[in-house]
Structure formats: structure tokens, C-alpha cells
Amino acid sequence: MTDAKILVVDDNKSVLSALEILLQFEYKSVQTLFNPNQISSFPNLKEVDIVLLDMNFSAGVNTGNEGLYWLNEIKKRSPDTSVIMMTAYGAVDLAVKALKQGASDFILKPWNNEKLLATVKSAHQLRKSRQEIHQLKNKEKELKQVINQDNSPIIGESTALQEVLNLVRKIARTDVNVLITGENGTGKELIARELHRLSDRKNEVFINVDMGSISDNLFESELFGHVKGSFTDAKEDRTGKFEAANLGTLFLDEIGNLSLQAQAKLLSAIQNKSIVKVGSNKPVEVDIRLICATNCNLDQMVDSGLFREDLLYRINTIHLEVPPLRNRNGDILILADFFLKKYSAKYNKPGLRINSMTQEKLMNYPWPGNIRELQHTLERAVILSEGDVLRPTDFLLNTRSGSSNDPGMRTLEEMEYEMIQKALEFNDGNYSAAAEQLGVSRQTLYNKIKKHKPAADNGK
Ligand SMILES: Nc1ncnc2c1ncn2[C@@H]1O[C@H](COP(=O)(O)OP(=O)(O)OP(=O)(O)O)[C@@H](O)[C@H]1O
User: Fold this and answer.
1) In angstroms, what is the span from residue 160 Cα to ligand 1's centroid?
2) Using CB atoms within 10 A as the burial measure, which of 41, 63, 85, 344 is most buried?
3) What is the pLDDT, as a whole number, of residue 426?
4) Which helix (H) or strand (E) holds 131?
5) CB atoms < 10 A from the CB of 264, how many?
6) How many A from CA of 371 to the centre of ligand 1?
7) What's the whole-number mean pLDDT along residues 83-93?
8) Mean pLDDT of 160-176
């Protein structure tokens, strides 16, 4: 027995009882209405899965207009209910008219029982699909709200930052591709999110992809998706990041770490505004706003043949350079105060203050890890604080270079970290070149950096 509610509306009582008898063997609830005027007051019409609706109710009238009128009334009150029209006058144009106005199907009287049951069954499937689509759409809406709710404020009053934010406001509502450059931890991702938040795409998703963490052989599958069976591990169809970001913003972080092969594939997707999934040959159109970020000098990489010039032209219609924290001194104490309040609240330590000597120490430090380093430094100081005032000694800045003065105190891990930093510095932040110099693969280098990251953050 199928768990569905059916309503039959016909002015012929013998039609009503015949259909009631036939359908109640298959469906849990079958109700009948002799007078269509009762449709308007029918309780919980939205819960009715299928309506079987006669087209002509007044004696001698067979235009079908009454049926079309009631079809519209039902659709107004319950758009997902499937309506099957019934008529003894099988004019094809009338059937087409009803289908155009939202009917699911059409049955001619006298009907064939088997055919009628098959029609009702597919109308029920249609109703279920419509409900699923609605549920998925609602779910998608909620997910988008959750994904987009990471709206950390951008703190800072320095002219350098305000100039960047002015440009962000100017370009946010255009669809131009934006390249954001700047050192690690300067707030590139935050700026990208702000561009999305101020754009007409703000109610759609912001998808963030860390290109440095994607190995070359997974690049296409991650970005463009794949079809089931296209390679050994492709157990299911997969939607890539481009498709997932459709109508929204796609943020490609660490774009300077892409191999030349991956760059060519990315260029083709951007140029064609479409992607082809691995294992398919059908292009799928995508409508995305592209924002890329890097701490590498892409112009230099173009000169040394490590980055495609045509790709650079595509991604940097507008170039935003986020200044390092040491060039926006005015922001250091404002940011410190912001993070102090944030972590005092998080760790339940109200009333914490920074004294003037501490302020001086923070102002004089060059912050090589920029705002991320300042943030972690404040978090650690708040956690370790014992009194109400955070003193200079609560901020163990630059301990890593301190320990490197004493070779006896360095661990193998610290030396490895230093080597990696040096190789990255030497190669202008280019992971591929640094990996080659260190004699490891780009993936291994990336894994090592990832492994060191928490330690590096804590040590600062
Ligand atoms: N102006 C700012 N105001 C408040 N918080 C900021 C600001 N800039 C950066 N942050 C915070 O600092 C941290 C690092 O910022 P973000 O991840 O945007 O930097 P990034 O330049 O993208 O770093 P990476 O190059 O390592 O990817 C984040 O927690 C971010 O919220």
C-alpha cells in the first residue's frame, strides 16, 4: 500500500465511487468531492499528493474551461500537488492547454484501469521529486547562509589598508577577475571574502580552494570534478569546485604554486567559462567570479618561465596588493586590542589590559607572519596570562631566531623549518622552485610546511 493522499473531483457519483474502489487498494488515503467549489475550502490541500480532476462540471458544457479554472486554483494553493485531468472529450488541444498550465497528465474517460493506475503512479513520483527538490533548495539556502557567515570584520585604520578597502568597494559589484597579492597572513582571504560580501553574488557560495594543497594528479578532479569510473578511485560522480561555486565566487589561494600543466587547464576553463569533468567530454558552463591570491611575485615567475603570462593577464584584471603589517604601524595596536577582546571573551578572562611597555614591544616588532602572527601571539598571551595586565614578558616574540643563536639548542625539526624558510625566501615564495632546490617533491614540501605550521605559529 502506497503512503499517498489522493483526491478525486468529479460531478458524476458513479465515476467517484469506481475510482475510489480502484485506488483504495493501492493508496492509503482516497477522498472524493462531488462539487468542485469545495476545493477552495478543502482542508490541508498541500498534503494531497495527487488530484484527479474532471474537466467539465456543468451539464452540457464541454469546453474544459471549468477544469482549467480549478486546476489553477489547486496550483495556486498547492504548487507541488500533481493534478491529472480527466475528460470524456479528448481534444488534444485541451490536453496541451492543461499540461501547459501545470497539469501532470491527462486521462480519457472511459479509462483503462491498468493505464490509470500507471498514470497515477508516475504523477506520485513527480510529486515526490518536486518535494525533494524543494527540500534540497531549502537545505542549499541554509548551507549557503552557514558557509557565508564567516564574516570576521576587517580591522585597521591605516591609509594603506583603507586604500585597499576603497578599491574593494569600487570593484566588488563588477564581475572582474581580481588578483590579491601580499605576504602570508596579511589578510588576503579576508579581502576576498569582503569582495564577495559586497558583490551581487553575496547570497551564493564563496568557495575557497588552497591550490598549494592539491597535487598535480588530483588537480582536474578537484577543480572540474569527475564521472564515476573515470579512474580507479572514482567510485562516484564528483562535483568539482568550479561547479560548486557556480553563480558565486571561486577563491583560488596560493595560485603561484600551480604547475605549468595545471595552469594550462585552469586557463582553458577561465577562457571558455566552462569545465569538462574527468572522464567526460561534455563541457559544462559555469558562471563564477574568480579571485586569486598569492604571496609569490607572479611577474618574476613569468620572466623565469614558471607562470604563464596569458594566465596572469586573465586573472589580474584588477590587482590588489595587501600591505604587510610592518607598513601599517597604525594598525598594530588597534588589531592587538581587537584580538585581546576577542580572546579575553573566548577564554573567559575579562578586564585584561596591555600596558604601555607591552605596546611599545608590539609596535617595535616587525611581524614577519603579519596579522596571523599577531593574532596567535595575543591568543597565547591571553591563555597564559595570570594577572589583569599583559606585560612584555607575556609576549615571547621571535623565540625561533633566539634559539637559532645557539646551535646547541636547535632541534632537527627547527633546522628543517629554517631550511624550508630560507629556500622559500630564496625562491620568492615559489613552492615548486623551493622544493627542487631542497631535493623533495612539491607535495612533500607542502606536507612539511603544514606539519611545521602550528609549531611555527606557536613559537612566534
Ligand atoms: N585587517 C584584519 N582585521 C582582522 N583580522 C584580520 C585582518 N587581516 C587578517 N586578519 C586575520 O588574520 C588571519 C590571517 O588572514 P588571512 O587568512 O586572510 O591571510 P592570508 O593573507 O590569506 O594568509 P595566507 O597567505 O597564509 O593564506 C585570519 O585569521 C584573519 O581573520
Assistant:
1) 15
2) 85
3) 76
4) helix 113-148
5) 13
6) 6
7) 78
8) 95
> What grid cell was written down for 89?
472529450
Predicted complex ipTM: 0.98
Q: Which residue's alpha carbon is nearest to atom 13 within ligand 1? A: 372
- Across 89-93, 371-375, 418-422, 436-440, least confident range: 89-93
Q: Which of 151-155, 177-181, 232-236, 349-353 shows the highest mean pLDDT? A: 177-181
Least confident of 52-56, 303-307, 320-324, 454-458: 454-458
Closest CA to 207 of 292, 90, 294: 292
Query: Residue 6 forms beta bridges with which residues?
Result: 30, 50
Helix ranges (H only) for 260-297 are: 260-272
The residues near 12 (Cβ < 8 Å, ≥ 6 apart) are 54
- 3-class DSSP state of 374: helix
**What is the C-alpha separation between 208 and 241, in angstroms, rounded?**
8
Distances (CA, A) of 406 to 135, 403, 411: 63, 6, 11
d(CA 37, CA 78) in angstroms, rounded, equals 16
Ligand 1 pocket at CB < 6 A: 152, 154-156, 182, 184-190, 253, 295, 335, 371-372, 375
Strand boundaries in 34-81, DSSP class E: 50-54
Domains of the chain by start residue, with CATH: 2-134 (3.40.50.2300), 159-323 (3.40.50.300), 332-459 (1.10.8.60)
Using most ligand atoms within 8 A of CB, pick from 164, 188, 251, 371 the residue to mutate for ligand 1. 371
Q: What is the DSSP-derived secondary structure letter of residue 278?
A: B
